[in-house]
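Notebook entry, structure prediction.
Reason for the run: the old model in the group folder had no record of what sequence produced it. Starting over properly, with the input documented here first.
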Amino acid sequence: MMAAAMAGQRGLRVLLVEHAQRLAEKIRISGGGRCNFTNTGVTHAQYLSQNPDFCRSALSAYTPRDFLDLVERHGIRWHEKHRGQLFCDESSEDIIRMLRSECEDARVEWRMPCTVQSVSRNGDGFVLQTSQGAIHAAQLVLATGGMAIPQLGATDFSLKIARQFGLKIIEPRPALVPLVFDAQQWKPFAELSGVALEAGVSTGKGRSAGYFLEDLLLTHRGLSGPAILQISSYWNPGEPLSIDLAPGKDLEEELLQAKHTGRQQLSTILAAHWPRRLVDGWLRSQGAEALGGSRLAELPDARIRRLAASLHAWTIVPTGTAGYKKAEVMRGGVDTRAIDQRTMQARNVPGLYIIGEALDITGWLGGYNFQWAWASGTACGRSLTAA
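New structure, fully documented this time:
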């Protein structure tokens, strides 16, 4: 809708084809129904890609302030949550109505619901065979997103068409998604579903490295919460997670001091920081359950140091993700090295444009992926030419 409105406002004739029965379902459910529509802290550094500089141009040409100006022109009330996240005061429906209104003002035509069965070249243009007949177009924009949340109609349509025209695809996988563990490995924690705490989570090395200090949530199958959703975009199968359960604290110093100044049990000291059942589960996972009832005074300093270190760097290897049904976005997509960063046009397929999540650009949690949709859509809409 963003690209269509921008192009239509420039006088181009635009037809928007939508296969779903209901418009913009991903916007509707986002942000708990209030749509975290952008983030004031957007820079290229919050996006993952094998071509990390690609997103710079579009993001600098259409900023969060630009989108906020549009929101305010439509009288949509909004508020800022922590870390620059902007939400609608009322409902995500406000953003959908705004985009629909922008398209109507630009005289964008609609075919909805309408499925596209095939796409082919016809001279300098394209022919789409659809459930409502053939469509001939001088230019074609693939704006169908990624495969996250298939229950809302998400598919790999853009990736299939890109492959058809010879474009390389960076392996897609779920991102911003909970991580799951082997049932036996997770047994000490399965009963702790619902326990949440702030933690520092990291994984990877070099360019693939990530670190986030956010809330972590234990589930019956593994880990979720903002910290895990964020790190999931950086995590690769087989890699361990390192979890700091006491960020900003010096547990070694605290435990050694407690050893020499009191007669408390280890589990009692730890329960001052975390729920007692989490402490017990963690000690079981470390094979140190028997130590929970021990007085600190009875433990060697070296053993206390190892325990403290393991709490600051709890290492655990996920067996996988919760999949596209639970993912917020798709990582990977069309290789951006084949796309012009200013226009979103495929370099070797004149007239073919690809925007949004279908490209190998994945933003952090917190409004970044919506801002990429607005920015890439605007770059494309401003670049389309009259037939």
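Summary: The CA atoms of residues 226 and 372 lie 20 Å apart.
The old model has been moved to the deprecated folder.
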